[in-house]
Amino acid sequence: MASSFPLSDPGRSAAPGATLARASGQVPDDMAMIRAAASLTRDLNAAKPGVYWIDMLASVTIGYGALAGAVLADGVAMALVFALVAVLALYRAGSFIHELTHLRPDAVPGFNKGWNALVGIPLLIPSFMYEGVHNLHHQRLRYGTVKDPEYLPLALMKPWTVPLFVLVAALGPIGLIVRYGVLSPLSLVIPPLRRIVVERYSGLVINPAFRRAMPEGEARRHWLVLETLASAWAMTLIALVATGTLPLRAFLIGLAIVSGTMVLNQVRTLVAHLWENEDEPMSVTAQYLDSVNVPPPGLLPELWAPVGLRYHALHHLLPGVPYHALPEAHRRLSRELGVESTYSLANYRSLSGLVVRLVKSTFGSRAAS
User: Fold this and answer.
1) Are residues 71 and 104 in the same domain?
2) Do residues 272 and 291 touch, judged by C-beta distance below 8 A?
């Protein structure tokens, strides 16, 4: 099994980044790293529309084509092969929701509408569920606290929370069908239910204490249009299955594939951070060290952390850099700062090593308590 320790020193018994993240109040900002990150990547901030469209459309085409192949396949083995391809491709297509939250509206013309039409609505993850939420995770004084919708101190929680965290995602598609096909229309005539739906079931979050507010102005109109479309699709899906128009077998295969994408994303989320902060404000450097890069030479991270997500720590350092420019940004910073720098401490080797490290942390936390 590959080491879960930083690439800069794979023989260490504990990751220095983890130690620093745990004592976040004592981590001063590494201004040399922060300045280098800004100065060396100024020319990388522009999104390339062609890259976004080609990547997303290819992922969608392969994903839905493989889903159809899984439904129509004669043998179980071939169906499983198609299903695996569909999970990976649709997972990649869905991961563009993260990019949507960071793109300026005019950066990639039409991409928001195109992604919602091809991915967000069909998979019942319209972009408003991340827009207005993910940006809170990047606020310096909110990150890692109870006000962060995308943070839980998993490394300090009970060991059973790790498998539960992943298993809950498997039920995601059913929850989304209920949210849009049942709760949304009911909430139109039951005002107290509407408040619950908006506050608790309108964001892709992991912090159960987070409560969302309905946005205003154009953002509110954008939300309502997408929610109406998603609700119409969910109710149509329910009706098609109930009347037998859509065979139950085909529906269950599609449900399993979408569930697979959500489980894969949840596993990726599990190792996106070290999850060792407990409601303490963190410096920019501490936030970086609490986050994870899994850079080359490994190839598998392109499958389980696509669309730039393998450079998650770097993304927290440079949230404005588009996903296709992150590999070059990483190369520049690694070359300039070297293997003994703070920058190198957020680089890890593998998914398996990070999961093992997190599980060990939960057992250590239990012993300490």
Assistant:
1) yes
2) yes
Place of tokens 């919602």: 116
Instruction: Report residue 340: phi and psi, to 5°.
Output: -95, 5
User: Is the bond into 247 cis (omega within 30 degrees of 0)?
Assistant: no
Q: Say how many domains are in the chain.
A: 2
CA atoms within 13 A on the CB side of 256: 16
Which residue has tokens 């060396």? Answer: 40
- Are residues 225 and 333 both part of a single domain? no
Considering only CA atoms, which of 93, 2, 4, 12 is closest in space to residue 340? 12
**Mean pLDDT score of the chain, rounded to an integer?**
92
Global pTM?
Answer: 0.92
Span 305-336, pLDDT tens digits: 999 999 999 999 999 999 999 999 999 999 99
Q: What angle do CA 68, 70, 74 make, to 5 degrees?
A: 115
Of the CA atoms within 13 Å of residue 69, those in its CB half-sphere come to 17
Its domain, for residue 235, covers 49-262
Task: Kindly state whether residues 222 and 356 are assigned to the same domain.
Answer: no
How crowded is the C-beta side of 332, counted as CA atoms within 13 Å? Answer: 17
Residue 109 lies in a domain: yes
